[in-house]
Amino acid sequence: MPPSNTPPPPADLAHFRTHPWCATLLDDPSYTISDMTSRHAKPSTEDLLFGLILKTPSTISHCVIQIPHPKSPTAQVPSLRALLALGKDLNGYPHVCHGGIVATILDEAMGVLIGARQARAEELAVREGKEPGRVPTSLTGELSVRYLRPVATPQAVLVRVEVEREEGRKIWLVARMEDGEGVRLAEGRAVFIQMREERDKGRPMRPRI
Predict the structure, then answer these.
(1) Which of 4, 6, 109, 192 holds its CA 20 to 30 A away from the CA of 34?
(2) Distance CA 6, CA 75 (A)
(3) Does residue 206 lie within any of the structural domains?
(4) 4-56 pLDDT, tens per residue?
(5) Ranges for the Thioesterase domain (predicted)?
(6) Beta-carbon contacts of residue 161 (< 8 Å; ≥ 6 apart)
């Protein structure tokens, strides 16, 4: 899911600015601060997980995305940062976030980068005078997670996502979650696969690895 073109809610920014280490990240001039569209549930039922179920004061109460400024007019989006405030209702063990939730957050953050790259590709196509068209979306084809430290709650965490390589319709990404001390808590690696479009019906086909 791509980041939004609009700033995040003021309450989200205000929350993270109460954490000095988060404020330092937010003040980095080489990044654009953005809202995340999956924090807004859609009538189609899209994004109900992050836009409803995990958007409460005691789950993921606040979230902010940071996208690096392009290094050149034709550069793709290579990475992003996400700040998330984790609450106690995410726990599986006392005071510790459930491992499945950690994996879900890593997967979602990688999906946000995929969406940002999709939006950038469409922007570049229009700029080059090509016929505008929607770039087919990509879905998670494979995901592995290494749990390095317990993710305590409540706390704010940082997720760093970057592209490792691309090959055809596949793109390999890595997402790393860390705390305010820079201690790495978990690492996820995934393969996302761009969906095919049926020429005659325009419906996405199931991706195959």
Answers:
(1) 192
(2) 21
(3) no
(4) 568 999 999 999 999 999 999 999 999 999 999 899 999 999 999 999 999 99
(5) 96-183
(6) 79, 80, 81, 82, 109, 110, 112, 113, 173, 174, 175, 176
